[in-house]
Amino acid sequence: MAAPGSVEEMRNRVVLGEFGVRNVHTTDFPGNYSGYNDAWDKQRFEKNFKVDMIHMDESTLEFDMVGIDAAIANAFRRILLAEVPTMAVEKVFVYNNTSIVQDEILAHRLGLIPICADPRLFEYKSEEDECDEINTLQFQLKIKCSRNPQAARESSDPNELYINHKVYSKHMEWVPLGSQADNMNANFRPVHDDILIAQLRPGQEIDVLMHCVKGIGKDHAKFSPVATASYRLLPEITLLQPVEGEAAERLKKCFSSGVIEIEEIKGKKVARVANARLDTFSREIFRHDDLKNLVHLARVRDHYIFSVESTGILPPDVLVSEAIKVLMGKCQRFLEELKSIQKK
Amino acid sequence: MGDEEEKQQPRVLQMVRAEGSDKSCVTFVLHNEDHTLGNSLRYMIMKNPEVEFCGYSITHPSESKINFRVQTRGGLPAVEAFQKGLEDLMGVCQHVLSTFKASVEEYKTKNDETME
């Protein structure tokens, strides 16, 4: 730990005090500190930068990104939420809807269903473009509810009385456009089969045709590829003095479980920081006047613990790669624009 | 004439320079951008010792553009500082992407081994 109040601490730690958070902003810019060379150095960045996977499965990803500034880490997070494209239902053609769900509500519900289709296979569709195989995916939902003739007379269970009374996302059927069926061996469908869209009663029916297009979360949240994408800074908890006996027990209770552990040393209970990473900084410690000055709470400024939860359309590691590429695309676009302006 | 051209092609980048100021002070107008590019680019440009000031503002919540100001100490034209910032940011992204991909691969092979 850097000494409290030192320049090192000011540069590298966000300090959590009793009455506020200190050293929040990045200050390591050239000219701010004498004796430090803060000019951008690609080699130094590449030497210090690290990515560690903590956990990855089909839908969630947790990884550490170390040695980068908040400005850039936050750009990745923002892009994940709002600028990585996906396919979602954009237009709903209602041929018949006699259910109690109004057309516009139904259309909205259909829009929010994640569609399992790789957006990289498609192009954006502009207002004047015709729908074709490269910019549109078509789905049909055609379902009618009826009485179940086999149902027992005295039954009052709708599941037994009616057929097709629950409309699920699995009832959406892909209708290939143009050469989609031959060219793409992918099977386009909703990510989850069991999303309840509407409930029907005998005689009611829904008959709609849907057009999915490529879009980004900035335009509408239904296009967002993540359920959530967030980061937190690595906690750093330091005991400034040995904490023993009853105080150690109380100290342990002030933090999330697993953060502080108690060891027996020569018959005495001594507190030890076991795993600061688990802490959520509840600030409980500041309610104990005798303990609050014995610990130093901080966060490591350049250590980001990212957590990305995909909606299931693309695996989360692909989403992060795509987000990085989106930021590169932005830089590229402005570099090219700059070039063309300078030519004029 | 210029207007017609602008109507046909949506503007991406504009450069505004106050009258009488030299090349070291330029405000760039980045269309269809927000904090995502604004803040990360500001960080990269501020890391350049030649730059005296760099900042941005979102003109209005319902306008999707940012005003991006760059002032250099005089030696370097602001446009070049801006360009260097973009190139540096591009370099960072490239490195992050390759590191991230390598890390994913490593995790996957390690996981496969433990599965077997």
From TrEMBL, chain A:
Domain of life: Eukaryota
A GO cellular component annotation in the UniProt record: RNA polymerase III complex
Entry's localization field: Cytoplasm, Cytosol; Nucleus
UniProt keyword annotations, A-Z: Acetylation, Cytoplasm, DNA-directed RNA polymerase, Nucleus, Transcription
Name the UniProt record assigns to this protein: DNA-directed RNA polymerases I and III subunit RPAC1
Main location group: cytoplasm
InterPro entries found in the cross-reference section: DNA-dir_RNA_pol_30-40kDasu_CS, DNA-dir_RNA_pol_insert, DNA-dir_RNA_pol_RpoA/D/Rpb3, RBP11-like, RNAP_Rpo3/Rpb3/RPAC1, RNAPI/III_AC40, RNApol_insert_sf, Rpo3/RPB3_RNA_Pol_subunit
GO BP term, example: DNA-templated transcription
Family membership noted in the UniProt record: Belongs to the archaeal Rpo3/eukaryotic RPB3 RNA polymerase subunit family.
Automatic annotation (TrEMBL), chain B:
Source superkingdom: Eukaryota
DNA-directed RNA polymerase RBP11-like dimerisation domain segment(s): 25-98
A cellular component term, taken from the record's GO annotations: RNA polymerase I complex
GO molecular function, one term: protein dimerization activity
Compartments (UniProt record): Nucleus
Keywords: DNA-directed RNA polymerase, Nucleus, Transcription
Biological process terms in GO annotation: transcription by RNA polymerase III; transcription elongation by RNA polymerase I
CDD domains: RNAP_I_III_AC19 (cd07029)
InterPro entries (UniProt xref): RBP11-like (IPR036603), RBP11-like_dimer (IPR009025), RNA_pol_Rpb11_13-16kDa_CS (IPR008193), RNAP_AC19 (IPR033898), Rpo11-like (IPR022905)
Family per record: Belongs to the archaeal Rpo11/eukaryotic RPB11/RPC19 RNA polymerase subunit family.
Name the UniProt record assigns to this protein: DNA-directed RNA polymerases I and III subunit RPAC2
Taxonomic source organism: Python bivittatus
